[in-house]
Amino acid sequence: MEKKNLDWANIGFNYRVTDKRYVSNWKDGKWDDGALIDDPNVTINECAGILQYCQEVFEGLKAYTWEDGSIVAFRPDMNAERMFNSAKRMEMPPFPQERFLEAVDEVVKANAAWVPPYGSGATLYIRPYMFATGPVIGVKPSDEYQFRMITTPVGPYFKGGAKPITICVSEFDRAAPHGTGHIKAGLNYAMSLHAHVTAHANGFDENMYLDAATRTYVEETGGANFLFVTKDGTLVSPKSDSILPSITRRSIMYIAENMLGIKTEHRPVKFSELKDFEEAGLCGTAAVISPVGRVVSKEETISFPAGMEKMGPVLQKIYDTITGIQAGRIEGPEGWIRRIC
Ligand SMILES: *Cc1c(COP(=O)(O)O)cnc(C)c1O
Q1: Is residue 192 in contact with ligand 1, taking CB distance under 6 Å?
Q2: What 3-state DSSP class applies to 199?
């Protein structure tokens, strides 16, 4: 199969329409058979639940071309499971996890020419999502939904190596205790856009959100979990019921502990501890790990000893391992790679 002729290293992280998308609709209490379709546009009723009350959940994962030309996905079963749980919390009919995996296979195969070649640093981003299509005006869950899975090629997140970023402590909160911070829903992003734009206007790359109740514990950024490394080399990741359970973070903690002999701790992390850490980073599907060089609050600036030039050595080692597994250069834990074609 002939790959598309794109300048893969420079395509950036933008939506680019590809050939096929997978669609299944929920109507009369059941999901239909689902199909690959050509139309990238969605036509829905003007009173659809997504438009009125934002009933939507989503996922994000990637497909990779390996050196032998085969195409794989990284732990898509984890996305299927998380989306299942997100849907339940949003009173939406969860999409069957086995069908989610079949949809990944189908949509990636149908867009195989768009999966960037091995070694380009680019990947095929897969965006599954589900939204309320049935009309509602009184507040209630909709009775019709669409599950859709689209794909778009994305470039390497960091061109020419990851440069540490500067983060500000947000004046806004992302997620309430007992709220929806732990589910992957567009609503968590809609309300964070103002904080995001404000941070950028003030010259920062990202926000660090603190726990909404006490503002003493570290939560996460708008779309990535935190990782810290202590002076004695322990990998620490904040724990809270309002943090989105990142699959990248869970994979990294497993790799650190079981493949690299790094001690790990998943526990509440006080903001006041930050000054004692050696390295800091963000993790998520998009960038895998982004190094954080500085955190700025109203009172102080915390500069991590790993500096502003490059990723710290512990995070770099973890980064090389997880990206090696995704690219097929390193054998990962059993069941982490789904071979598509
Ligand atoms: C998607 C997301 C992450 C990262 O999760 P991954 O599964 O690693 O991609 C982190 N935080 C939030 C709020 C997210 O929506």
Answers
A1: no
A2: helix
Residue nearest to atom 5 of ligand 1 (CA): 246
Give the residue, by CA position, lying nearest to ligand 1 atom 2: 223
CB of 242 closer than 6 A to ligand 1?
A: no
| CA torsion, ordered 219, 220, 226, 228, to nearest 10 deg | -40
- For residue 220, the ligand 1 atom closest to its alpha carbon is 11
pTM of the complete model beyond 0.90? yes
- Phi and psi dihedrals of 258, rounded to 5? -100, -20
Instruction: Write the pLDDT tens digit of every residue in 20-61.
Output: 999 999 999 999 999 999 999 999 999 999 999 999 999 999
pLDDT at residue 158 greater than cutoff 90 = no
Taking the centre of ligand 1 as the mean of its atom positions, its distance from the CA of residue 280, in whole angstroms, is 17
* Contact 322 CB / ligand 1 (< 6 Å): no
Asked if 253 and 237 count as a contact pair (C-beta separation under 8 A), the reply is: yes
Hey, what domains does the chain have and what are their CATH numbers?
8-154 (3.30.470.10), 165-327 (3.20.10.10)
* Structure confidence by residue, pLDDT tens digits, 73-114: 999 999 999 999 999 999 999 999 999 999 999 999 999 999
- Per the model's pLDDT, the better-predicted residue between 96 and 161 turns out to be 96
- Give, using CA atoms, the residue closest to atom 13 of ligand 1: 223
What amino acid occupies position 137? I
